[in-house]
Amino acid sequence: MNLNRLKGHHGQPATGGISRRAFLTRVGAAAAASLLIPSAEAFASSLGRERKISMFNTHTKEEWGFICSPQQNYDEELLSSFSHFLRDHHAEVSRPMDPALLDLLYAVTVLTGGRGEYNIVSGYRSPETNQWLRKIGHGVAEHSMHIEGKAIDLRSDDVGIRSIQQVALALQQGGVGYYGSADFVHLDTGEIRSW
After folding, report:
1. How confident is the prediction along the chain (195 residues), in pLDDT tens digits per residue?
2. Model-level pTM?
3. How far is CA 70 from CA 81, 89, 195, in A?
């Protein structure tokens, strides 16, 4: 697997004007408040080393990964390849995916103690694909965050989906959906909500 490496653009915001460090600090505070870790300082300490996050797209059979360091922001090449990896495989179209999804996966990996290996069920969905999936009865939301490039559905071989769900709920960084019968968790960077 060809891993992408973060490049040092320390002054640039990761997304929406919020720096990666500020995001991860908020995540650490949320985790400490939820007793996932003893303190925000413990979380910050656990973020001190680089981590490899790797993904396998269950539809395209492609692999993608990156080496994440909390001190560095994402460069355009990495974000472009991430967006292409999570493209709508039905329509073969992509859109820029929210970089905060990568931060969220990083935080979930740290707090679950997992290997950071994820099987991707769904990423971006074009409005046409989303409408088609709604018609054939897949329980798809009409105004899905997938259309906005702010959602990812996933599972992991070494961490159960219930554990991923519980950590994501505690982080309070967006929407969390649990789909036990389909064996995946939905994570998004929209409003905080759960189902």
Report:
1. 556 654 433 333 334 444 566 666 666 666 655 655 555 555 556 656 677 899 999 999 999 999 877 667 788 999 999 999 999 999 999 999 999 999 899 889 988 889 999 999 999 999 999 999 888 876 788 889 999 999 999 999 999 999 999 999 988 889 999 999 999 999 999 999 999
2. 0.81
3. 19, 30, 30
Tokens matching residue 112: 């679950």
Fold type of domain 3-194: Muramoyl-pentapeptide Carboxypeptidase; domain 2 (3.30.1380)
The tokens 């409005």 sit on which residue?
127
Stretch (H or E) spanning 28: helix 20-33
Asked whether 150 and 83 are in contact (CB, 8 A), the reply is no
Q: How is residue 98 written in tokens?
A: 């929210």
Q: Residue 85 has which token pair?
A: 């990896």
